[in-house]
C-alpha cells in the first residue's frame, strides 16, 4: 500500500501522462511557468528519476545522460524498463513513493511552508502511478491530464517505434484509462495551450479553497 500522507490532502495534484515524444516535458514546463506566475508553491515529481538513478548506480552509467532525451538514454531504455518492472513486482509503489519523498524533502529545505500548494507529476506511466497519487492526495484533489500527439508528429520529434519499449507497460499501461480530466492534443509546435492553462488555474484554486 502507498504511504498515506494526510497533509497532502490539501494540495492540488496534477498528473501528466503520455507516450514517448508526445511533449510531456513541454506541457510540464508550461504548467511550471503558470504556477510561478500565480505565485503558488509547487514541486515537480519525476517518477523516472529514482529508476534512472538506481539503474545508473548499479551499472556505472552516466546519470545526467540517462535523465536527458539523448540517444544514450534510448540505448539503455529496454534493459532499464525490464529492471524497473522486476522491482515493481515486489512493490508497485516503490519508485512513485521515492520520487515523491525526494521532491518533498527538497521542498522542505527551501520553503517555510510544510507542504506545497501543487504537486506536479510529470510522467505517470502505469496504473499503479495513478493509484498511488489518488491514495496520497485524494481523487477530488487530483487532476489527470493525458497528452497525445499523432505518430507523424512524434516521428518528426525523433520517435521511432521500438519493440519491447513501445508495446510495454511503460508506454501502454494507461491506454485503457478513461478517467482523464483533460485530454490535450499537442501536435502544433509552439502551442501555448492557453485554454488548458486557464482551466487548470480555475481547478487548482477550487481545490485550494476547499
TrEMBL record:
<protein>
    <recommendedName>
        <fullName>Phosphomevalonate kinase</fullName>
        <ecNumber>2.7.4.2</ecNumber>
    </recommendedName>
</protein>
<feature type="binding site">
    <location>
        <position position="186"/>
    </location>
    <ligand>
        <name>substrate</name>
    </ligand>
</feature>
<keyword id="KW-0067">ATP-binding</keyword>
<keyword id="KW-0753">Steroid metabolism</keyword>
<keyword id="KW-0808">Transferase</keyword>
<feature type="binding site">
    <location>
        <begin position="19"/>
        <end position="25"/>
    </location>
    <ligand>
        <name>ATP</name>
    </ligand>
</feature>
<comment type="pathway">
    <text>Isoprenoid biosynthesis; isopentenyl diphosphate biosynthesis via mevalonate pathway; isopentenyl diphosphate from (R)-mevalonate: step 2/3.</text>
</comment>
<keyword id="KW-0444">Lipid biosynthesis</keyword>
<feature type="binding site">
    <location>
        <position position="157"/>
    </location>
    <ligand>
        <name>ATP</name>
    </ligand>
</feature>
<keyword id="KW-0152">Cholesterol biosynthesis</keyword>
<dbReference type="InterPro" id="IPR027417">
    <property type="entry name" value="P-loop_NTPase"/>
</dbReference>
<keyword id="KW-0418">Kinase</keyword>
<keyword id="KW-0153">Cholesterol metabolism</keyword>
<dbReference type="InterPro" id="IPR005919">
    <property type="entry name" value="Pmev_kin_anim"/>
</dbReference>
<dbReference type="GO" id="GO:0005524">
    <property type="term" value="F:ATP binding"/>
</dbReference>
<keyword id="KW-0756">Sterol biosynthesis</keyword>
<dbReference type="GO" id="GO:0006695">
    <property type="term" value="P:cholesterol biosynthetic process"/>
</dbReference>
<keyword id="KW-0547">Nucleotide-binding</keyword>
<keyword id="KW-1207">Sterol metabolism</keyword>
<feature type="binding site">
    <location>
        <position position="199"/>
    </location>
    <ligand>
        <name>ATP</name>
    </ligand>
</feature>
<keyword id="KW-0752">Steroid biosynthesis</keyword>
<keyword id="KW-0443">Lipid metabolism</keyword>
<dbReference type="Pfam" id="PF04275">
    <property type="entry name" value="P-mevalo_kinase"/>
</dbReference>
<dbReference type="GO" id="GO:0005829">
    <property type="term" value="C:cytosol"/>
</dbReference>
<dbReference type="GO" id="GO:0004631">
    <property type="term" value="F:phosphomevalonate kinase activity"/>
</dbReference>
<keyword id="KW-0963">Cytoplasm</keyword>
<dbReference type="GO" id="GO:0019287">
    <property type="term" value="P:isopentenyl diphosphate biosynthetic process, mevalonate pathway"/>
</dbReference>
Amino acid at each position: 500500500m502507498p504511504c498515506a500522507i494526510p497533509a497532502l490532502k490539501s494540495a492540488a495534484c496534477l498528473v501528466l501522462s503520455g507516450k514517448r515524444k508526445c511533449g510531456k516535458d513541454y506541457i510540464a514546463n508550461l504548467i511550471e511557468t503558470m504556477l510561478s506566475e500565480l505565485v503558488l508553491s509547487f514541486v515537480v515529481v519525476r517518477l523516472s528519476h529514482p529508476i534512472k538513478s538506481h539503474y545508473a548506480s548499479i551499472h556505472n552509467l552516466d546519470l545526467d545522460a540517462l535523465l536527458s532525451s539523448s540517444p544514450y538514454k534510448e540505448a539503455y531504455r529496454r534493459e532499464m524498463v525490464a529492471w524497473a518492472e522486476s522491482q515493481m513486482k515486489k512493490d508497485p509503489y516503490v519508485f512513485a513513493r521515492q520520487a515523491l519523498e525526494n521532491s518533498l524533502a527538497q521542498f522542505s529545505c527551501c520553503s517555510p511552508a510544510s507542504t506545497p500548494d501543487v504537486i506536479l507529476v510529470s510522467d505517470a506511466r502505469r496504473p499503479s502511478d495513478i493509484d498511488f497519487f489518488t491514495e496520497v492526495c485524494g481523487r477530488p484533489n487530483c487532476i489527470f491530464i493525458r497528452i497525445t500527439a499523432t505518430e507523424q508528429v512524434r516521428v518528426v520529434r525523433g520517435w521511432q517505434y521500438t519493440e519491447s519499449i513501445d508495446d510495454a507497460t511503460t508506454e501502454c499501461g494507461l491506454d485503457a484509462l478513461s478517467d482523464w480530466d483533460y485530454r490535450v492534443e499537442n501536435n502544433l509546435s509552439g502551442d501555448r495551450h492557453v485554454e488548458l492553462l486557464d482551466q487548470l488555474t480555475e481547478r487548482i484554486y477550487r481545490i485550494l479553497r476547499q
